Structure formats: structure tokens, C-alpha cells
Amino acid sequence: MRMEVEAAPVGSREVQRELNCTVCRGDWKHCRLATCPYLADVRRWFQEQEPLASTNLFGASPPSAFVGSYGWPRVLAGPLVPPVVDDTSLMDAPEQWIGHDLPEILRFRLSLVRGKASRRILDARSPDPLLRTVQEGAMAARPVDTELWLAKRPVLEGPFSARAPPTGPSAEIRKLALAGNPSVPRRVDYVVSDTDLRAGEGVTDLYRHGIGQSHITRLFSVGLLGMAKRRTLVPTEWSITAVDDILGKRLLDQVRTNPWIDGFLVFGATGFGNNVQILLAPSAWMFEGLEVWSYGPNSYPGQDHEFFYGRTDYPRNLEGAYHAVRLPVLEYLARERRQAGAIAFLEVYPDWIPLGVWRFRELARAALAKPPVRFDRIDDALAALPSRLKLRIENYRAKSVLLRYLTDQRRITDYARAA
User: Fold this and answer.
1) CA–CA separation, 202 vs 383, rounded Å?
2) Residue 366 in domain
């Protein structure tokens, strides 16, 4: 598990890009809800919630847990608990957020109070009662009633991170108890109990048995997956990318043996101030992500790519977004039992706010769930993209490695048509 986790730390460029705000200027530690222009409606709602001002909180955890990265290898870990006992499962299930608007997502995310307890990452192997309770709650598939006693009134400080969805106010935990029995899927119990199973194999096993990705990421983060002597607490934002990467690599082993697709396919979806357009080409597996945040004539996208055998290093330009989009592409090809080269065009618009890289993953899944537009020639496919993108296609072509490869490479069929 060590190699999988160490590949995923959040780089400074990712944080700066994800949190580019005219108020905080990318320094999320100075962000306060009262000053963020994106959260005017949410601010008003937040201030009216009296239960969020209490040091004793009772509510139904979605279920959810959060492990911070600050201070690693000693981290702050704990549950996320809203002051309600209704069905809160949507609050920590990004797979279900497509179709909900930004204010709604922010309202239920910022109502999650984060309890924090400082623990060494190795404490996952022999947890004390508090950490064991956090782990038990994380195993649940449905909301679990939780009582949380805090050392002081929770305070909202820097709700945004580069990869994870935002969380609400936080405070140190004095005491934590589950008021009900967690509903744990049989497969989750089996994999967590298998202390001879590697973390990557556990992630893949749960995925194949239909366990939701957010649930798998939660188990990975609180140190419930892997061999007994290798289990550790993993910061949530690292876990998100690690799970995306592990699942992508397992699917790639399957996709590389499939026949190529016929023709060129274009998919697309927009939402949350983001645009995802995906071009699939008939070729051996390769993947490229092109991400842009500004749209002047001299703006160019960040770029990372891989060819048939995948990457051996971390994608330093797109970072977490790279793995988040590659996974849905591989899921689609595995379903279709086909192989292709893929280029993902990712655009982030000014009305976006930092919600985590799940948005790219779920927008890509939504795009690939719809019928594609089909073309026989790559030139025709590229001619259709300008109407779907804000940045000029010439700027993308200037930075893209795979577009040059696909447009310059001649095939046997090209010579046949010429004859």
C-alpha cells in the first residue's frame, strides 16, 4: 500500500489551481465563510443553524469520516456528523450529486460537523476506542446515528481542499459514540477482516462486488484495507486519488486485451462550472488529459498523458484530475469490451467553486453514459469540438501529444483509400 499512497500527495500547483479565488487568492487557510462571494446564500443558511453552535451533537452520519493531511505522519481523524437524523446518505455520496445544484451541495456538505482527534497513522493497526468507533462507522453502508461531544464550539476554517468535497465546522473530539448498530455489507466485513489481503486487491474486490467508490475510499482512508502490518490512516484527499488510480490500473489490464473501437467517438457533459469532452479514437490504449482554467488567445492547457503500458510517475500537471477522468474512460471501455485512445478536454469556468475532483469523475461518467457523436475521420471529430469547447482547438493541439500522434500517423486503410 505504501507505493500507492505515496504517489498521491497534493502538489502545491494543484492546491493553487483548485483554490484560485479573488478573495483568498488561493490561500484557503485565510478563507472564511463570511467573506466568500460564492457562498452568499449558503452563509445565510449556515448562520441560522443553531445546532451547529453546540458542543454536543447528535445526528445521522451519512456515514462519513475524514482524515486530514496536515502534520502527517500524525493526522487529525474523525467522523462527519450533521445535526439531523433524517436520511443523510446523499451528503457523502458524490456518485449521486449530478443533477443537484451548487448551493444545495454546499448546504448539505457544510452542515457536516467534523470531529477531530490527533492520531499517528500507524494507530490504524491497533486503534484505541475512539478510532475504533470511527472505523466502525466508516464500514456502514447506511446512515448511522452518532453522538459527538466536542471540546469547544465547532469553527469553520478553510472548508475547501484540492480533492475532497468541502466539510463544515470542526472541533476536537472529547467523546464519540454510535447510538445504533452500523449496517455493514457482508462483502465489506469480509474484506476488512482479511488481514492477508493487499490494499489494492481489497479495493478491487469491493468495486467488483458493487460497493460504492465513496465507501471504498472511506475504508481505505481510515486504515481498514490491506495486510495487517501495512494498514495506516491515509489522508482523505490522498485516498481519493489512490482509489481512482488502483481501480484504473486493474481495468487497464482488461482493456488492453480488447479489440479497437470502430471510428471516432465524441462524448460530453457540463455542470458545476466545468466542462468535460472526451474523444475516443480507434487505436491501442493511450490516454491524455488537457485541463485549462483561462481562455485568452495565449492560454494553453496543462497536459499529462500515457501510452499503452500506462504511467510510471505521477501526473504533475493535472494531478488528481488525471486519475479521476481516466477511471470513467476505462470503465466505459471495459463495459463495451473495446480498446481505444482517449483524450479528455477539461475546462473550468469562472463560476466554479472548489468541490473536489469528484466533479470531473462524475461528469465524465455522465458523458460516457450518453450516446456519442460518431465520425469516420479524426479531422471531422476535431471540427466538431470547437462548438463544445471555450478554448480554441488550436491551443489544445499546440500542447497535445496524442493529437499529434493520431493526426500524423498514417494507417494501412489511409493508403487503401488513396489508391
Assistant:
1) 43
2) yes
